[in-house]
């Protein structure tokens, strides 16, 4: 038996395992036969002996016949789609084909799935003729992101008398990836955005020296004053200086994954909101041509295809978004106590636009966040109010040592962040628009700070 299109053999159980597959009916027949044999010996009844041997032999013969059955059944599993957002469904199709010359008996299919995806699916297939095919399907759904194995597929064989059942398993396991939900965001300009960041049209001069010069062939209409005579002499044809090089706008999405900063678990927890928010912001900026880097509080940057820890936007944004969502599908809490590692990761260069999703911050970590902000052209922080998530119907007080969210937001605003508090039920799209309107601009940073280009939109 094979599965998933690959030629393989299902695990074949031994005779001892086959005896362990006796059903209740088979065990009852065997026990009754042995009891009849014992009674015939004690009572001296030869007719009872023949009945006992028949009762005991029937389940044993069924076990032997079923154990030696050599059904050649090929199977495959197809996930449509294999990557789904949280709370969405995926359809799993199972296809069985009898590739032997003999018809099969009644087959029971059972696919192993994690309990979070729903009940274990089971199907009963009637007799399958030689060369015949059967297709069945079921749906799975997960409210929590992650990677979930599906399989191996199990095939249960039974004899016509129902005396024995054997389970033979395929070896192939497929994976369903449940990614965070992505919320569409409006194409607006974020408050405090510095000039030169936005739609990927920023340029840098390449005149630092002769070693940095990259000449190109002369084209009709080029200014003759840009002819580079040294390269012309070397190549034997007119070469001009390429004075401007396009530089893609950059953005860093900072996700605070500290376990001490997020309380609670489950699909409605603040940490899951932060992960979904980071996914939405990253995908939105990728679609607008940004080069996006995902950074966590541990200082770990998600490696992108460009080798520099960033995912390229533009024409390849769909593939980059898929890789980034696959990474966020398995991100988990960290044991870090602070944001120092993240600061070390960004202080080496200009990070462009910074979008941060913070949990609980004390004064010390708010100061570290302020230093992180100094390395960026624009900085927007979404600060989750963990107390609002943890508050029950009757309400509870602040946890010991926890700073109220209003104070945390003010600390970040003083450091130059455009900071907004997040409470349960808040939509990221509304907060994104509020950040564009300047709600939360820090002192000295007007809400309508001028910026010739937009974050996730066209020129204003």
Automatic annotation (TrEMBL):
InterPro entries: DUF58
Name listed for the protein in its UniProt record: DUF58 domain-containing protein
Domain DUF58: start-end pairs: 216-299
Domain of life where this protein originates: Bacteria
Biased composition (Low complexity): 439-449
Disordered: annotated segments: 439-460
Source organism per UniProt: Streptomyces mooreae
Family matches, as Pfam families: DUF58
């Amino acid at each position: 038996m094979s599965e998933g299109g690959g030629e393989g053999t299902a695990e074949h159980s031994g005779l001892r395992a086959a005896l362990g597959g006796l059903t209740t009916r088979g065990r009852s027949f065997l026990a009754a036969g042995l009891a009849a044999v014992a009674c015939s010996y004690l009572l001296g009844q030869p007719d009872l002996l023949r009945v006992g041997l028949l009762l005991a032999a029937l389940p044993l013969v069924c076990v032997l016949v079923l154990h030696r059955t050599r059904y050649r059944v090929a199977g495959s599993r197809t996930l449509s789609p294999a990557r789904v957002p949280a709370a969405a469904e995926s359809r799993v199709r199972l296809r069985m084909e009898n590739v032997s010359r003999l018809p099969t008996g009644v087959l029971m299919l059972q696919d192993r799935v994690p309990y979070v995806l729903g009940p274990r699916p089971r199907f009963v297939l009637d007799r399958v003729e030689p060369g015949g095919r059967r297709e069945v399907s079921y749906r799975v759904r997960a409210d929590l992101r992650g990677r979930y194995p599906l399989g191996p597929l199990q095939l249960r064989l039974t004899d016509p008398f129902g005396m024995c059942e054997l389970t033979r398993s395929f070896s192939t396991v497929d994976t369903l990836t449940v990614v965070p939900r992505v919320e569409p965001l409006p194409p607006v300009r974020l408050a405090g955005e510095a000039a030169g960041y936005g739609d990927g049209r920023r340029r840098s001069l390449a005149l630092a020296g002769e070693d940095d010069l990259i000449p190109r062939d002369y084209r009709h209409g080029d200014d003759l004053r840009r002819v580079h005579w040294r390269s012309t002499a070397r190549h034997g044809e007119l070469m001009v200086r390429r004075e401007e090089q396009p530089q893609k706008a950059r953005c860093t999405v900072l996700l605070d994954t500290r376990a001490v900063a997020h309380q609670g678990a489950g699909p409605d927890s603040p940490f899951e909101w932060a992960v979904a928010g980071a996914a939405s912001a990253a995908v939105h900026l990728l679609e607008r041509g940004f080069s996006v880097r995902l950074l966590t509080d541990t200082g770990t940057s998600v490696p992108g295809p460009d080798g520099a820890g960033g995912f390229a936007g533009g024409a390849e944004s769909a593939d980059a978004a898929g890789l980034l969502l696959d990474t966020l599908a398995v991100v988990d809490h960290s044991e870090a106590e602070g944001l120092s590692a993240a600061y070390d990761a960004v202080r080496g260069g200009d990070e462009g636009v910074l979008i941060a999703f913070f949990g609980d911050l004390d004064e010390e970590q708010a100061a570290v966040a302020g230093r992180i902000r100094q390395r960026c052209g624009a900085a927007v922080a979404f600060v989750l109010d963990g107390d609002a998530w943890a508050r029950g119907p009757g309400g509870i007080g602040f946890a010991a040592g926890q700073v109220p969210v209003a104070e945390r937001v003010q600390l970040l605003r003083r450091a130059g962040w455009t900071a907004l508090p997040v409470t349960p039920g808040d939509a990221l799209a509304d907060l994104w628009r509020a950040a564009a309107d300047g709600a939360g601009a820090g002192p000295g940073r007007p809400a309508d700070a001028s910026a010739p280009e937009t974050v996730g939109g066209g020129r204003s």
